[in-house]
Design brief:
The protein is of the alpha/beta class and about 280 residues long. It contains twelve helices and ten strands. It folds into two domains: about 55 residues, no CATH class; about 200 residues, HAD superfamily/HAD-like (Rossmann fold), CATH 3.40.50. Helix 4 packs antiparallel against helix 5 and helix 7 runs parallel beside helix 12. The radius of gyration is 19 Å and the shape is globular. Keywords: Amino-acid biosynthesis, Hydrolase, Magnesium, Metal-binding, Serine biosynthesis.
Length: about 280
């Protein structure tokens, strides 16, 4: 069974392999052996945050968890993962309090604050914001580079795609429609008389919800964890990343990079598609 690490070896030159492996791990060293095979020293992160060094021949059936043929479910965070913004900060900008809210958001994503408590605190500050502003906010948010290519490739390979977001369903649903993502689980803003009330309709989509929903979907589809991909950037994504066979922290906060199974710090999200399927 072909493993992700052998895809690296077969799809890229030595130089490209060195560059691309750096995307997922830190400071790899790649050399070509006398028999033409490539030997790489990989620095990988375990879920517990312990760094390990392994000497691996790329064709060896070790190191990675899933083959490209078996991946069947891909779950994504939205804010700062599929899009280049934190939506709640953009909502705050309409009220002139973006810096105040963004500071709380940053601390929450770093894992310094309880997500639910900080979410409710930030949301309360948005009380009274006109819902008429929401369309304009969505229209100015930029999609993360490589997201469209990655989702298109996953769909072409028959992979179910899902947004699991601690952001807002109104935005996540529109993004899903634009990208062709199958399902959305996100927070629902409470809107009364055309204005935000500063609350969200329960349940709140937090870290535990994300992980629980990922496991529920995998169970319903009768999938092994090795058939599940998850991608996120914040501390509230860590349980979801740990629950997936392939959990990738994308340009993530320091704590998340330390604890996540894999990290992607360079390039766009299409790097994941290249890792899974070679040239795309």
């Amino acid at each position: 069974m072909q493993r992700l690490v052998s895809v690296f070896a077969s799809s890229f030159s030595t130089m490209e392999l060195a560059e691309f492996s750096q995307v997922f791990v830190a400071a790899p060293e790649v050399s070509t052996q006398a028999d033409g095979s490539q030997l790489a020293q990989w620095k990988t992160n375990t879920v517990m945050g312990q760094d390990t060094l392994k000497q691996i021949k790329p064709e060896a059936d070790i190191f990675m968890f899933a083959s490209q043929e078996l991946l069947k479910l891909a779950c994504f965070d939205m804010d700062s993962t599929l899009i280049q913004a934190e939506v709640i900060d953009e909502l705050a900008a309409e009220l002139g309090i973006k810096d105040q809210v963004a500071t709380i958001t940053e601390r929450a994503m770093r894992g310094e604050l309880d997500f639910k408590a900080s979410f409710r605190e930030r949301l309360a500050l948005l009380n009274g914001l006109s819902a008429e502003k929401l369309d304009g906010i969505f229209n100015r948010i930029q999609i993360m580079p490589g997201a469209e290519l990655l989702i298109a490739k996953l769909r072409a390979e028959g992979v179910k795609t899902v947004i699991l977001s601690g952001g807002f369903e109104l935005f996540a649903a529109r993004l899903a429609a634009k990208l062709g993502i199958d399902e959305v689980y996100s927070n629902v803003l409470d809107i009364v008389d055309g204005k935000l009330t500063g609350t969200a309709i329960e349940p709140i989509v937090d870290a535990e919800f994300k992980a629980r929903q990922l496991v529920k979907m995998a169970t319903e589809l009768d999938l092994a964890s090795s058939q599940v991909l998850a991608v996120g950037d914040g501390a509230n994504d860590l349980p979801m990343l740990a629950a997936a066979g392939i959990g990738i922290a994308y340009k993530a906060k320091p704590k998340v990079q330390e604890l996540a199974p894999l990290t992607l710090n360079y390039g766009g999200l299409d790097g994941i598609a290249k890792a899974l399927y070679g040239d795309v």
